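Supplementary Methods S3. Complex input for the guanosine-5'-diphosphate-alpha-D-mannose-bound model.
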Amino acid sequence: MPKIALITGVTGQDGSYLSELLLSKNYEVHGLIRRHSTICTERISDILDDKNFFLHYGDISDSSNLSNLIREIQPDEIYNLAAQSNVGTSFEVPEYTAEVTGVGTLKLLEAVRQVNPKIKFYQASTSELFGGIPETAPQSEKTPFYPKSPYGAAKLYAYWITVNYRESYNIFACNGILFNHESPRRGEDFVTRKITVGIAKIMAGKQEKISLGNLNAKRDWGFAGDYVEGMWKILQHDNPEDFVLATGETHTVREFVETAFEEVGIKIEWHGEGVDEKGLCSKTGKVLVDVNPQFFRPAEVDLLLGDPSKAEKILNWKRKISFKNLVKMMIESDLKKF
Ligand code: NAP
Ligand code: GDD
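Predicted complex, serialized as structure tokens:
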């Protein structure tokens, strides 16, 4: 019998890659999808006609809908990827973020407990949990948490309620503590994609410059395709445990900008400081990057650098795509698109 998986957040970056991975492993894949007034299935358009792929309307905040779906689908595995996932936006909509990103996880776990506690459960936890303690880098499963945003605080609740349902009800519930992972399918409101889309539009003559916030933030950026493989491996392990998935490398936003412009043959020279800093084309002197305080956050996570050694040792998981190749892949895709 093929395994059955239910994915919340199926229309998102990770949901689309995970669906493709599970279909390639002969799973029957069911995705939870919200009703939109416009089409939101762009990322899963290639698999919509797959005979083993099914979509169901619902919402992570609707507990009766979640229970009914689980009863109907009887999945072997649930991957909870649904979230208001933008950290900056969570400062604008903190209560909504808590409801969806935090309490939504409880609603899904409670449905699992009531309908079938044998279902394996994956929770999309995050390096944002580590937030404010840069002195403890690299960050591992043992690093204390200190979230710095409403998103991080909501994910902290989701992390612990997952651990609690594992310990209280013996549910195979695991946290994947994933560091930033990107791809050509990354939402355009995240910094990497904002940069690669911006460069593609500049090259096409459709945009003058890219306006960014904090250029000094450091992130451990990997490729989403590698990370969904890790999610699956976490649920195939003998015991329910929590794992960090990361590259073990960190880069500033500034370095991402430089590397991405290098891909189109432009060298960036930085002039000025703070909000007056600008990135100029070294040949023409044209301003291609500037700083807009609108993109600063009320609180910032300065440094994320993960230690993936537990996942490498126990799950035999390792990222395959390097930072440079990730940037190249995203730029090439956006140059074609724009
Ligand atoms: P994403 O592209 O923003 O996708 C989020 C998904 O959640 C979308 O499918 C979205 O649906 C869905 N969603 C939002 N609110 C919902 C609700 N109320 N009910 C049902 N579905 C809802 O995020 P991602 O990058 O794929 O990340 C997947 C998960 O991993 C998220 O939980 C994120 O917080 C977490 N995470 C991501 C990273 C990363 O670097 N990407 C790192 C660590 C953890 P719509 O299409 O309808 O908006
Ligand atoms: N979005 C955005 N837009 N970020 C900017 C900008 C800008 O114009 N300019 C600078 N940044 C900085 C942010 O302040 C942050 O320090 C860094 O770039 C990365 O921001 P995002 O790409 O928005 O990602 P994130 O690190 O805040 O959150 C992502 O990774 C988390 C895992 O660490 C999201 O995918 C979260 O859902 C995920 O949990």
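The chain has a mean pLDDT of 97. The first helix runs from residue 13 to 24.
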